[in-house]
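Record type: monomer structure entry
Structure origin: computed from sequence
Chain ID: A
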Amino acid sequence: MEETFSFILEVIGTVAAAISGIRLAATKNFDWFGAYTVGLVTAIGGGTLRDLLLDIPVFWMQTWWYLGVTALSLATVIVFRNILVSQEKLLFIFDSIGLALFCVIGIHKTLAIDYPMWVAVVMGIVTGAFGGVLRDILINEEPLVFRKDIYATACLAGAIVYWLIMVSGGSYLTRQLSCAATIILLRVLALKFNLSLPTLKSSPGKTKDV
């Protein structure tokens, strides 16, 4: 049951992350191969770094499935280009879903090989956010995780919720769904109320962010 549920989360997360990357590539007028590459890197980047750090087999090298799902995501963006590319909020939706589900997957996989919770928290953030960092670098944008936006911070909050439910005896399903819901909710609230982290400035008298 747990493995089936994790697989479903991974399917949804991969699709959401790939579409967010492909959609951004489309706004930069990338060709199909370039858009596919950006989508694939967005979908597998965080998990790849996680597996390398944990010294376990890199997940996407075990099956062609991730390459295929990214291809289907590209086809979806091509067919529904007018809807997916023109609607700015859709990027936020897909990005938030991918961020949340990949964070959950990162925590689960780390705990499954008996690492402590604090390592699982770091791996959850890495899995959720690093693919987006690579995506933004490839399309020549400042990575979202380094801006004022509530991004990695949302992963941290979701991971804490996961841990609190786990130590209180909550079920596997409850802690995973609660973690994902927390991340998505924080992202939505941050957008709605224009919430952000303070920026680090070169000096008190200057307004330029560092």
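Annotation 1: The helical segments are 2-27, 32-54, 65-79, 81-86, 88-112, 117-138, 152-167, 172-192.
Annotation 2: The chain has a mean pLDDT of 90.
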